[in-house]
Structures are given as structure tokens and as C-alpha cells.
Amino acid sequence: MALLQSKYTLQVGEKVPDFTLMGVDGKQHTLHKMDGPVLIIFMCNHCPYVIPKFERIKEIASEYREALTVIGINSNNNEAFEADNFENSVKTAEEEGFNFRYLFDASQDVARAYDAQCTPDPFLIDKDHNLYYHGRLDDNISTSEGCNEKEMEAAIEKMLAGEESPEPRPSQGCSIKWND
Hints:
By secondary structure, this protein is of the alpha+beta class. It has a single domain, classed as Glutaredoxin. Helix content is 21%, strand content 22%. The chain has a 7-stranded mixed β-sheet with strand order 3-2-6-5-4-8-9, with helices on one face. The protein has a 3-stranded antiparallel β-sheet with strand order 1-10-7, with no helix packed on it. Strand 8 and strand 9 (131-134) form a beta hairpin. The longest helix has 11 residues, at 86-96. It is globular, with a radius of gyration of 15 Å.
């Protein structure tokens, strides 16, 4: 499986695209109706780079639950990859005990608007819904354990302290499986 690095199309300080997506909770979720900072992670149910990060994402959601909203977005081609269809997204969220919003982007319009490239591909958004940081979760792409730098937590702390965005390090993982 080829390892892909994310690109930087959205620029730090730029307003991020709004969206409304169905969540595995059966509700519609609209980004710009959410108050405060948001961490969006483009992810899926089957990627060998995402699965080991489920625990890290849940840790971030738990640790920062009062300060920001964490959202996972599954944009993978769900017809070609049955593991990533809506029903399996619901099942994965339940089995893994996701404590964050998990949304379904069947049209892939949101992934394209953000120019997301891989899974996982995190975007940290400030309280005004401007891009603060686009980069990887940590320096260990294959597990949540054994990392030397928890880069996303460091970026969150800097954002919450009103500091300048850190230099991004491209996120790495499997390519998003596009419909076309």
C-alpha cells in the first residue's frame, strides 16, 4: 500500500469551506453552526494508517472536549470499498467507541473542497472557522504508541494560547479512494 502525503491548498488564516453532512448518529451536522474551534480528520474504516489512530483521535476528543469539536469525515468511495459505506461507518463508530462526531461524505464534495489527500488528513480550524493548522497527528504513522511528538496536541495548545500556527508537517496515509 503506497504512502501518500497531503498537499497544502488551503492556507493558514483562510476561511474553510462550510458543509452539512450526515453523521453516524443519524443527524445532519453543519460546520459553520458549530461554536469554537474544530478538528476535522478525513479518515475511513479500513485504512491501515487510520485504524491505529482511532485511540489517538479519541484521546484528543476526550482531552479537549471543552475546547474544541472533533469530527471524523469518511469520504472514501463507499461503493468500491464496502468497509467504508455508511452502515459500516455506524458499526465502526459503535465498535470502536468513537467519542467524536463521525460524518459521511458520500459525494466526496467536502474532501475535494478541502483538497484532502490521504487518510488520516487532519485540519485544525480556529474559533472563526479559519484554517489554523493542516498536518499530521504525530510522528508515528503506523501506531498511536511510541511517538516522540504529539504534533496535533502541540498545535491545539498553541492555537488555544493565541500563538502563531506551527510549521506544518504533511500528514501521511493511504490515498482517499475517489469515486472517479
